[in-house]
C-alpha cells in the first residue's frame, strides 16, 4: 500500500471514530486496500437502550450484500458480546458459500443452475472455473485432487428461483462454456 493511501485510510479511521463516515468514501478506501467487501456499522443510543446497524457492502458495485439491525437493551459486556456473535452469524448466513454449474453460455450472459431458492441475490459475485484431469499419486494411484483453471469472475444480474443469469466482470471475452463450475466469491 502506498504511503498516501495508508495516510488516507488512517484519516478515514479517525473520522469513523467520530461517526462522520461517508459510505462512498469508505468504499473507495476499501478498494485501495484490495477488499472485496466492507463492513460498516453505527451505534444509535436511545432511551430504552442502543441499536447497532451493520451493513456489508460490495466495494465494486456499492450494493449492500447484507444489512442487520441489532437492538441492545442490557448494555453489559456479556450481553453485547453475545449479541455481536449472533449478529456475526446472521451476516455470515446472508453471504452463503454456494457452488453451481454453468448450464448455458450465450454471448455475454452465463446461466447457472443455482438461484434465489439457494440464497443467491442480484449483485452476488462468483468465480467461474473449469475442472481438468485428476491428479493421481504416482505410487499409490490415489486421486489427490483435480486440475482447476480459474476462468474469471461473474456478477449476478437476474435471479429466478432455480437459476441466475450472470455477466462477466472485467474480461468480456471469457471462454466460459456449459459444464464449467462456479463458486460464490
Task: Please tell me about this protein's structure.
The chain is an alpha+beta fold. The protein has two domains: 92 residues, no CATH class; 86 residues, Thrombin, subunit H, CATH 2.40.10.410. The protein contains three helices and nine strands. The strands form two sheets. A six-stranded antiparallel beta barrel has the order 4-5-8-7-6-9. The chain has a three-stranded antiparallel sheet with strand order 1-2-3. A hairpin with a 4-residue loop joins strand 7 and strand 8. Helix 1 packs antiparallel against helix 2. The protein is elongated. The two termini are 23 Å apart. The model has no long low-confidence stretch (mean pLDDT 80).
How far apart the termini lie comes to: 23 Å
Helix content: 10-25%
Apparent shape: elongated
Give the number of domains.
Answer: 2
H and E string:
HHEEEHEEEEEE
- The averaged pLDDT comes out at 80
Specify the structural class: alpha+beta
For the largest beta-sheet, the strand count, sense and barrel status come to: 6 strands, antiparallel, barrel
Poorly predicted segments: none
Radius of gyration: 21 Å
- For the biggest β-sheet, the strand order reads 4-5-8-7-6-9
Our count of helices gives 3
The count of strands amounts to 9
What share of the residues does DSSP label as strand, in percent?
35-45%
Set out the fold topology.
Layout: H1 3-18, H2 23-32, E1 37-46, E2 49-58, E3 64-72, H3 77-94, E4 99-106, E5 109-112, E6 125-136, E7 143-159, E8 164-169, E9 181-184
Antiparallel strand pairs: 1-2, 2-3, 4-5, 4-9, 5-8, 6-7, 6-9, 7-8
Helix pairs in contact: 1-2
